[in-house]
């Protein structure tokens, strides 16, 4: 409620994002570039589009539609929004996900169009925020996240129009995913487009931004070096004034949380240098139900899991993302995986229930609340004789320093294995 009072944007109040999305733009257009048959994969449709004109600049994109054999006519398509242009690596990733998904996958590139103003990525987003504030908030189209979201929506428009011609029936629904600022885009687009029936934001554990920043400084001592594009431009902590409040109320997914009725699958790395290890706890409980999370151990912002068993692999993340996509496309959901942390201070119990094949506890130690360089270790937990499966474990605070814990369940979907996690619990001196 504090955030609602601060920003006065609870519920369905119109934001700058809503206004930008609803503004008509006649520059939208698209064309089919090619259709290629790929052995063992199916067809790859390459489309090109102009999504909009933003600040006098026409935004152009490549859109690849991967169509595994026998999947034409699917009413629901998974879409990955990403940066850069189509390349061998981008096609290989699309083929890998579509193969695991066993359903159509669209990959929309050039989110955002860049460089602009001589900047890219977070530096570019920060530049547009600063220009909005320096212009006294008069140009509500400036924040870069707005055209990024609109690009995704225009990509979905293209898919609908194209599949109406190329398939027995058109696509109408979408499972949207993206990583980092494209994960940010995933949150915001899902707040304004009802065609999105599932969202899977990856490595963007900064929802509830104002509270996150204070918690980050408490945990790290200083802001993360990774967000220097925002701290150096004095965008965080939040600068004073109504325009700054209006900006953040339009770009923080937390303020749209009541809109996220769709199934949600949040994917984070346990060692992501951008966020605190327990950042999820600052917004998880206030998200509507039908939500799952995967925290990849010993993985940073790229979700590459570095361990003796899985050196530099994203298999756990991709397999679980595909499982979420398959379930949502089928109109079902991932297994009901529940957990509770009970007790406080030095002794806490973690209880997990769900139809898992196995459950395990992941732990890491650090001298402070900063776990970015910590090594995570796992131990298998005995399953109780119950249905669904259940496991419990006692968590003890260390004598000095801090210790972080979370549980993970391993699940099967036919021949496929995937994983779901609990929230992280930190114990130690002055720990919550």
CATH fold assignment of one domain: Rossmann fold
Q: Radius of gyration, rounded?
A: 22 Å
Largest sheet: 9 strands, mixed
Shape: globular
* Order of helix and strand elements from N to C terminus: HHEEEEHEHHEHEHHHEEHEEEEEEEE
Helix content: 25-40%
Count of individual beta strands:
17
Percentage of β-strand residues? 25-35%
- The largest beta-sheet arranges its strands as 1-2-3-5-4-6-7-8-9
- Arithmetic mean pLDDT: 94
CATH class of one domain: Alpha Beta
Q: CATH superfamily membership of one domain, which one?
A: Alpha/Beta hydrolase fold, catalytic domain
Q: From the coordinates shown, what is the CATH architecture of one domain? A: 3-Layer(aba) Sandwich
Distance between the termini: 21 Å
Number of discrete helical segments: 10
Regions with little confidence, pLDDT below 50 for 5+ residues? 1-11
């Amino acid at each position: 409620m504090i955030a609602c009072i601060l920003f006065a944007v609870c519920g369905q109040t119109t934001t700058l994002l809503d206004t930008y999305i609803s503004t008509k733009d006649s520059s939208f257009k698209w064309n089919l570039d090619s259709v290629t048959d790929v052995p063992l994969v199916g067809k790859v449709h390459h489309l090109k589009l102009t999504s909009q004109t933003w600040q006098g600049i026409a935004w152009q994109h490549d859109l690849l539609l991967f169509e595994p054999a026998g999947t034409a006519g699917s009413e629901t398509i998974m879409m990955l929004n990403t940066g850069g242009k189509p390349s061998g690596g981008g096609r290989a990733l699309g083929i890998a996900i579509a193969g695991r998904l066993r359903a159509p996958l669209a990959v929309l590139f050039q989110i955002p169009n860049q460089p602009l103003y001589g900047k890219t990525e977070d530096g570019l987003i920060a530049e547009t925020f600063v220009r909005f504030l320096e212009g006294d908030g008069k140009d509500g189209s400036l924040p870069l996240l707005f055209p990024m979201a609109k690009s995704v929506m225009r990509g979905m428009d293209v898919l609908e129009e194209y599949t109406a011609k190329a398939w027995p029936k058109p696509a109408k629904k979408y499972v949207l995913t993206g990583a980092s600022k494209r994960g940010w885009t995933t949150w915001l687009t899902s707040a304004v487009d009802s065609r999105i029936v599932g969202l899977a934001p990856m490595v963007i554990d900064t929802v509830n931004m104002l509270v996150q920043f204070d918690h980050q400084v408490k945990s790290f001592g200083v802001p993360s070096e990774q967000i220097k594009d925002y701290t150096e431009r004095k965008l965080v902590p939040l600068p004073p004034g109504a325009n700054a409040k209006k900006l953040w109320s339009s770009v923080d997914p937390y303020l749209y949380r009541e809109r996220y009725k769709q199934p949600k699958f949040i994917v984070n790395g346990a060692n992501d240098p951008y966020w605190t290890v327990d950042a999820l706890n600052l917004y998880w409980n206030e998200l509507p139900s039908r939500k799952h999370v995967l925290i990849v151990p010993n993985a940073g912002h790229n979700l590459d899991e570095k361990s003796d068993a899985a050196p530099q692999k994203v298999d756990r993340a991709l397999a679980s993302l595909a499982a979420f996509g398959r379930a949502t496309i089928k109109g079902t959901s991932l297994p009901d995986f529940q957990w509770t942390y009970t007790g406080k201070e030095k002794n806490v119990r973690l209880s997990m229930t769900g139809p898992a094949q196995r459950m395990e506890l992941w732990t890491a130690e650090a001298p402070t609340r900063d776990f970015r360089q910590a090594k995570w270790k796992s131990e298998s937990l005995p399953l109780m004789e119950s249905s669904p499966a259940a496991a419990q474990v006692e968590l003890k605070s260390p004598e000095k320093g801090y210790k972080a814990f979370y549980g993970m369940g391993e699940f099967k979907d036919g021949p496929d294995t995937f994983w779901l996690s609990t929230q992280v619990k930190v114990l130690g001196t002055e720990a919550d």
